[in-house]
Design a protein that fits this description.
single chain, mainly alpha, 72% helix
């Protein structure tokens, strides 16, 4: 997985749960992704 693909997953989560990027990152992203990348790293690719 790359930061770009994590950013795409984050975008999809925000649409699915109708929430902000940060809320989706903290509450809905898979732990494997959040352990591998920081929110700031992924946010750069959105």
């Amino acid at each position: 997985m790359t930061p770009e693909s994590a950013a795409n997953a984050l975008k999809e989560m925000t649409k699915l749960f109708n929430c902000s990027y940060e809320t989706a990152w903290m509450n809905y992203m898979h732990p494997t992704i959040t352990e591998k990348f920081t929110y700031e790293e992924v946010r750069k690719h959105i």
